[in-house]
């Protein structure tokens, strides 16, 4: 499969501050890649470098095999959708969609065809003669996407396009964007801090921190096999549970104080005996039961039962730390109830406490 975007050794400095650090990224043709991370991690900065809105310090950027490192934004063959809709308030939807094409001296018949096609794809045909003030937030964002769509480019860049919408609209527009990608099959790079958007939209997710890509993989790979402690803690709501301990018996068991858990089912690398490791357990990979099983359960006490609709989130004190576990919503648990947490070690994550890298 050919690459639509190639980023090679990209570095961006603002004075003495290094914002992007020797970054490499390949995006396959037709792929949907999400740049995910907390505020200040460099995800929007990287997108702006791809768009040509920021001048990089070092490295190269290729789009469709063409070196566009120093090319102007309009020479890169990209369409960009920003966080703010940035629509012209005095123009109708039709005017907003056609404005860039008119400036580019595209023939009128071609403009009309492109606007009609974008309106059909985005289901905004009845809105073409309205002005932005008469549109809802979701409709305005569809128009903003349409403005990029009429350019008929190979690569679309989205900079947190749904962050100004309420939760219901975000969910609806997520579906629209996923449907749009399935229909057009264009390459899309999408920036967000919302892990739900990333997990539902992406073919691959690039989790970023401090200007560095921590892990680039399919959503399920990142969720189930995080490359390091940061990715494990950032992905998942609520976060992964962490237990600090050591490995004993040549890596056959995890020890936490007087508690020992078998690592026989753990699907990881060479464990060996290590003085400091961190065991990561997703809330849905723990089972609450009344009886203890040596080597596979952790004694715990219920602190809070939090119904979430489809299931409940139970918070407990276990092994000197607070832990969370998902249970069926009909199973109510009173605070103070002693229980035992059965660990699904086949789905656990184990990290070296010093390097924070997955073992």
UniProtKB/TrEMBL annotation:
Keywords: ATP-binding, Nucleotide-binding, Transport. The keyword ATP-binding applies. GO terms for biological process: carbohydrate transport. It holds the Pfam family ABC_tran. The keyword Calcium does not apply. SUPFAM superfamilies: MOP-like (SSF50331), P-loop containing nucleoside triphosphate hydrolases (SSF52540). It comes from the Bacteria. Residues 5-235 form the ABC transporter domain. One of its GO terms (molecular function) is ABC-type transporter activity. One of its GO terms (cellular component) is ATP-binding cassette (ABC) transporter complex, substrate-binding subunit-containing. PANTHER family: MALTODEXTRIN IMPORT ATP-BINDING PROTEIN MSMX, OSMOPROTECTIVE COMPOUNDS UPTAKE ATP-BINDING PROTEIN GGTA. Belongs to the ABC transporter superfamily. This is sn-glycerol-3-phosphate ABC transporter ATP-binding protein UgpC. It comes from Pseudotabrizicola alkalilacus. The lineage of its organism: Bacteria, Pseudomonadati, Pseudomonadota, Alphaproteobacteria, Rhodobacterales. The gene is ugpC.
